[in-house]
Amino acid sequence: MELLQTLKYNTDDLRSKNWDEFAQPDAPQMDFVLTGCVSAAAEMCPVRPGQPMTAHWGIPDPAAARGTEAEIRVAFSDAYRMMERRISIFINLPVSSIDKLSLNKQLDEIGKSS
Predict the structure, then answer these.
(1) Is 15 helix (H, G, I), strand (E, B) or coil?
(2) Domain span at residue 102?
(3) What is the pLDDT of residue 30?
């Protein structure tokens, strides 16, 4: 949270969530589910109502970083940079004008960028 706060993001209401929260009847409908943790690639994601498109965007977990305080900050900055870049590419995709297969392929390719 320290990096996000430094970047002036409001983190007051942010928290980790269990997958079960998204299986509740009143949960928001998801069009996309993007996993980020490197270890998540080996895990089976739960089935979600509405069959959202999924992709794995593996990024080393900065919370697992070891070393000096400066090295740990770099790990968080690197993870943030990778996610920010991938999200930027994602939100600029012409989602409404490409077919589902092409979109899925592009989501996978975004996950391979650094």
Answers:
(1) coil
(2) 2-112
(3) 86
Round the CA-based radius of gyration of the chain to a whole number and report it: 16
Count of structural domains within the chain: 1
pLDDT of residue 18: 82
**Which residue, among 80, 90, 59, 88, has the nearest Cα to 7 in the 3D structure?**
80
Q: What is the pLDDT of residues 38-91, one digit of tens each?
A: 765 566 666 666 778 888 898 999 999 999 999 999 999 999 999 999 999 999
**Claim: this prediction has a pTM higher than 0.85:** no
∠ CA 91-92-98, rounded to 5°: 100
Identify the CATH number of the domain in which residue 88 sits. 3.40.50
3: Cβ contacts below 8 Å, ≥ 6 apart: 73, 76, 77, 80
Distance between CA atoms of 55 and 86, rounded to whole angstroms?
12
